Amino acid sequence: MAATTADQSGRVVLIALDGSDQSTYAFETYLKSLKYPDDVVLLVTCKELSKVEKLKTEEETKKAMLKPYGDKLQEVGIKFKPLILVSQNPGYSIVNTAQAENAGLIVMGSRGHGKLRRTLVGSCSDYVINHTSAIPVVVCRQGS
């Protein structure tokens, strides 16, 4: 997978991916409607910190999950960098990574679990929206 160099020009776009249909839809929405030729895309996925004994295996799984997205970006000539974050809170890690990498846009899917589930469990997209006042967030939800 070809990654970007430290010298990047253009807008930095963080795309959060978890292997779900919704995150794939968000990626496809970026390609169809949001991409600029000089974008640098951060392909971001998270693995749970609590699974320390499985980190190596999970890292290989996450790399394999990101590969088709990187391949597609390479096909259309978009620079990218895959990032696997280790965290208990993916939303927090996405926000911090976007800020640290000076992202100009965050693109992510939403599973649309609804108000009750968001209140009880927490929603990654809801967290990101409410903690990134300086970075636009595009949340893509695929129709049924």
H-E order? EHEHEHEHHE
Largest sheet: 5 strands, parallel
Query: Total number of β-strand segments?
Result: 5
> Which stretches are low in confidence, meaning pLDDT under 50 for 5 or more residues running?
117-122
Protein name: UspA domain-containing protein
Pfam family, one: Usp
InterPro entries: Rossmann-like_a/b/a_fold (IPR014729), Universal_stress_UspA (IPR006015), UspA (IPR006016)
Written overview of the protein:
The protein has helices spanning 21-34, 55-75, 90-100, 115-120, 124-130; strands spanning 12-16, 40-48, 79-87, 105-109, 137-140. It is α/β, with parallel strands linked by helices and 144 residues long. It has a single domain (12-140), classed as 3-Layer(aba) Sandwich (Rossmann fold), CATH 3.40.50. Strands 3-2-1-4-5 form a five-stranded parallel β-sheet, with helices on both faces. Helix 1 links the parallel strand 1 (12-16) and strand 2 (40-48). Helix 3 packs across helix 5.
What's the short story on this structure?
The protein has 144 residues and is an alpha/beta fold. The protein contains five helices and five strands; from the N terminus they run βαβαβαβααβ.
